[in-house]
């Protein structure tokens, strides 16, 4: 179905190709995961499948890419639209209509699908992706996760033979992500759809895929193989694999179910070992408060009667399903939303938004960093050093719009961190970040709270919460339904528990690192 024959891609001004001599064949009816570090070239590989590279991206493509017998060199993206459906990392940038139902129908209108068929497919897709309640809603008023589901639905309605997805679950809550991936798998198995997706949150997708393609991004060849083989030999691995390595299991488990079956002896060994405390830390001065807060859109409140206090030394994770009000609360705390009633007091807050490009205006990474240093009255090089600490290798002369979504996020994070806000607000801060960059972010957040700052992050990344959160606040339908220490809240929640907690239950372990440390100590 998809064939890469000695494909190399080099962008204008680049010293080396982003992809080099790629040979890859993906047959019909396979679900294929593309993994690699942030900025390694995953998005370039995906965009080469439907001709966006090089027809719209520029640069030079050598070699041949064929999809269903059509060469992308002679078929532009519009010539492949009936075969390949593509959803990028930023769904909002791809929308062309104003509301959900119109967006689902638009691509079919462009392809000349009969109106009676269009109506049927729209209804099927609304049900398939759980969008029926949102059919008439303006796209601009949807949460990031809801927008992501609409974007996927808008290409599914055309019934493509190949579906290409770039970070398809990055803004979805855990249950919605599982539903979407299970739907994709069902289409693969039942209809022979070929799905190629890039995803950093391997813990979500590994159990669904048939093959993994690793794009190393360091000049090494692109390699592919079965999930078990690929994850056994790479440092990029989900927590379930990390736990298997710590316990010495062979073969390594890929799913919670497999690991749970293997963990009987491990749980017995650690039954009398107390897991380490992840907080709450001793809190300092109050940095933000909300009292009886009502916030949202005209005639449609998103938050109802929310009262919350955040103090220095805390890392508060806001969790909840898509549309629960997490991003709205962050925007309220930074002053982007005016309360309809109630009060907000958070005078020293800085926000990294869910779409990091909203903070990027200059013509190069270098200029962005220099402007951020001046705005923050910080020593020259401060912002650049923060960005390099998160992920290195970003060319300072690159235009921000040419960065990957993960690289845009690291730049936006560095810009806000340079301001040293007393309260740092992060909206989906690991979207587009690989495991290494995520661990670097965790280290920075630990340093910030140790210095007396506070952090509030809205996230669906349960593994990040397990690593860094001292407190979890769960929102549902605009109300606070849980507020407590991270271990107490997430371990008891089937939806928000990290992989290690599910495997080790009822023992309250949160991370593979905690288990590895305990095993090392007990076996001395």
Automatic annotation (TrEMBL):
Name of this protein: ATP-binding cassette domain-containing protein
Gene3D superfamilies registered for this protein in UniProt: P-loop containing nucleotide triphosphate hydrolases
Entry keyword annotation includes rRNA processing: no
Highest taxon, organism lineage: Bacteria
Record keyword Translocase present: yes
Gene Ontology MF terms in the entry: ATP binding; ATP hydrolysis activity; ATPase-coupled transmembrane transporter activity
Naturally occurring in which organism (per UniProt): Nocardioides donggukensis
Transmembrane intervals: none
Function of the molecule: Probably part of an ABC transporter complex. Responsible for energy coupling to the transport system.
